[in-house]
Specification:
With 200 residues, the chain is mainly α. Helix content is 78%, strand content 0%. This is HdeD family acid-resistance protein.
Length: 200
């Protein structure tokens, strides 16, 4: 009587039908990095709005400090996040540009309203492009948040670029409001990332 190893065939069939192992989606960006960016931007916006009589030099210093903080956060996040090499390079490159811009503002390079407006616009647009690039590779649950933040940031940057006859008062108001809006959005996205990471 011939014995048939049915149990082995069944196990092999079960393994064949199981398919590839399911891997968890990695967060698009680290929770702590997004939270630092959001809080720094929010505090920056609040500081600008609560300083209505600020001079050009004062606004330049505030912008410089903000760029240094968010630039440093992006650089550190690039080396500690464990993301794909492309995202790490992008984060580090933008962080370095922000740090250079922050140092320039602190050294009083932005001596004119238009120069300061260009620096702020460039920072918003660059941030938006970075978020949009990351969104294209991000998990589905986080993609919508990143795309919204990217579009808002880029739109604000172009407003700074193409607003005719910007005055210092207009820059102060626009910078403060945009900082508060983007900061709240980034902080909210950070906690959304944390909830997604904690979800089973």
């Amino acid at each position: 009587m011939t014995k048939h190893p049915l149990h082995r065939d069944g196990a092999a069939a079960a393994q064949g039908n199981a398919g590839p192992p399911v891997t968890e989606e990695q967060p698009a960006v680290p929770f702590w990095q997004v939270l630092v960016l959001g809080l720094a931007t929010l505090l920056f916006g609040v500081a600008v709005l609560t300083w209505p009589a600020a001079t050009l030099r004062t606004i330049g210093v505030l912008v410089g400090i903000w760029l240094l903080v968010v630039g440093a956060a992006r650089i550190v996040g690039a080396f500690l996040s464990g993301r794909a090499i492309g995202r790490q390079v992008l984060s580090a490159a933008i962080g370095i540009i922000f740090v250079v811009g922050g140092v320039a503002c602190l050294r009083n390079v932005a001596k004119g309203v238009l120069v300061l407006a260009f620096i702020i616009a460039f920072a918003w647009i660059l941030s938006g492009v970075a978020e949009l690039t990351i969104a294209l590779q991000a998990p589905t649950a986080a993609r919508a948040w990143l795309i919204i933040l990217a579009i808002v940031s880029i739109a604000i940057g172009f407003v700074f670029l193409f607003w005719p006859g910007l005055s210092l008062t207009t820059i102060v108001i626009m910078t403060g409001i945009s900082g508060v809006i983007i900061g709240i959005g980034e902080a909210a996205f950070a906690f959304q990332l944390r909830r997604l990471a904690a979800a089973p």
